[in-house]
Structures are given as structure tokens and as C-alpha cells.
TrEMBL record:
Belongs to the AzlC family. It comes from the Bacteria. The keyword Zinc does not apply. Keywords: Cell membrane, Membrane, Transmembrane, Transmembrane helix, Transport. InterPro entries: Brnchd-chn_aa_trnsp_permease (IPR011606). The chain crosses the membrane at residues 20-40, 135-160, 166-185, 192-223. One of its GO terms (biological process) is L-valine transmembrane transport. Its main location: membrane. GO terms for cellular component: plasma membrane. It is found in: Cell membrane. It comes from Sagittula marina. It is a multi-pass membrane protein. This is Putative branched-subunit amino acid permease.
């Protein structure tokens, strides 16, 4: 019967997801502290993490909200930061697209950087897994990543309430972005996108409501995609 194999896949997913806890824990803790520093209460901070469950988008939205940016711009900026999720969805659909609707909804909600990276690698290494095994593995990866994100956010919010208002920890936010960005620059396209996006954001920093961030994100993605398009023919010749 397939049940033992399904459970084996689940626990393999848990094992593969555990190392991500070393990253998820500190960043969720940091978000909780910064969110309360920005004026959110504990319930609002936790709700933010539960509803959005996307670290980079949460930090971006929080920064803009703290500057009284219009909600439309906040949402557009968070969307620009999270456009990569559409690519994750397209990549994972051949593996999990045949699931029932309610399972696809669960997968979509928990499809974040870490769960996608682990699942995509596992599906490539074990192409003969059944649909049930693939879903079990995905949920196994989710267990040590997503629930701890909520827990550490809550702890960070409680700790943030203990930070004196005059202390100020605004400098931590750009450091968090740098720490998240650095390890992700694995290819030439990534580095081109980051460079063009960063320069463009500075050039258009004069735009109101931090629209320079959206301009930088769009130009960075366009530059990265064009770089990759130009490199593909060369790779095919080699």
C-alpha cells in the first residue's frame, strides 16, 4: 500500500525543510520587532505574517506604510516584489496541478521561496513519485518553515513592545534586505537584475510615494530577462 511511502515522503520533506529554520526564525523575529516599532500592535503584526506570509513583501510594505504611503502604492510595490511567485507557480504546476482544488489552495498559500526551492529540487531528483508523495513532501517542507514564521513573528512582536521608543532600529531594515538579497544572486541574470534595479531605484528616488521602488523592480526584471534571453543562444552553441 502507498501509505508508508507517502509518510516517508512527508518526513523527508520535514528533514529537508529544517535547515531553513535557521533563516526563517531570525527574519520572522526581526519582522515582529520592526513591525511593532513601526506602530503595529501584536495582533496586527501576527495577522500581517499570516495573511501575507512573504518576508520580502512584508518588509517592503511595512517600510512604505511607516512613511504614510498610499495603500495602492503599497500593494503595487508588494506585488512587484512578489512577482517571482507567479514563476514558482508555473514551475510547480506540472507536479501538483492535478491535486484537488482544496489541496491546490493550500499549496498556493504555502508556496514561498524555501518551500518551492526544496520541492523543485526533490521533484527533479525523484521524478517517479506519485502525486500523493509529491504533495506529502511539500507539506513536510512546510512544517518547519511556515508555522515557525508565525511563532517567531509573535515572539518578535512581544520583544518589540519592550524596545524603548526612542531607541530606533530603522537601520535594521536595509540590513535585512541586503542579507536576503546576497545569497540569491546566483546567476548573471540575477546580478544584472539586482544592479539595474538598484541603480534605477536610486535614479527615480525623486518620485513620490516611493514609486522609484516599483520603477526599479520593473526595470530590473526587464534587464534580467533580456540578459538571460541573450545568453540562451550562446549557451546552446557551447
Amino acid at each position: 500500500m502507498p501509505q508508508p511511502n507517502v509518510m516517508s515522503s512527508f518526513w523527508r520533506g520535514v528533514r529537508d525543510g529544517l535547515p531553513f529554520l535557521l533563516v526563517v526564525g531570525p527574519f520572522a523575529l526581526l519582522f515582529g520587532v520592526i513591525a511593532t516599532e513601526a506602530g503595529l500592535n501584536v495582533f496586527e503584526t501576527l495577522s500581517f505574517s499570516v495573511v501575507v506570509i512573504a518576508g520580502a513583501a512584508q518588509f517592503t510594505a511595512l517600510q512604505l506604510l511607516s512613511e504614510n504611503t498610499p495603500v495602492v502604492v503599497v500593494l503595487a510595490s508588494a506585488l512587484a516584489v512578489n512577482l517571482r511567485m507567479a514563476m514558482y507557480s508555473a514551475s510547480i504546476t506540472p507536479h501538483l496541478g492535478a491535486l484537488p482544488l482544496w489541496k491546490r489552495m493550500i499549496t498556493a498559500y504555502f508556496l514561498v521561496d524555501q518551500t518551492y526551492a526544496a520541492a523543485a529540487l526533490n521533484y527533479e531528483k525523484h521524478p517517479n513519485q506519485t502525486l500523493a508523495q509529491k504533495f506529502a513532501y511539500f507539506m513536510g517542507v512546510v512544517l518547519p518553515i511556515c508555522p515557525p514564521w508565525y511563532v517567531f513573528t509573535l515572539v518578535g512582536a512581544w520583544l518589540g513592545n519592550a524596545v524603548p521608543e526612542g531607541l530606533g532600529i530603522d537601520f535594521v531594515l536595509p540590513l535585512a534586505f541586503i542579507a536576503m538579497l546576497g545569497p540569491s544572486l546566483r546567476t548573471g541574470a540575477h546580478r544584472v537584475a539586482a544592479t539595474v534595479g538598484g541603480v534605477a531605484a536610486l535614479v527615480f528616488a525623486f518620485l513620490p510615494y516611493n514609486l522609484g521602488l516599483i520603477a526599479g523592480a520593473l526595470l530590473g526584471m526587464m534587464a534580467g530577462a533580456e540578459f538571460e534571453r541573450r545568453m540562451l543562444p550562446q549557451e546552446g552553441k557551447s
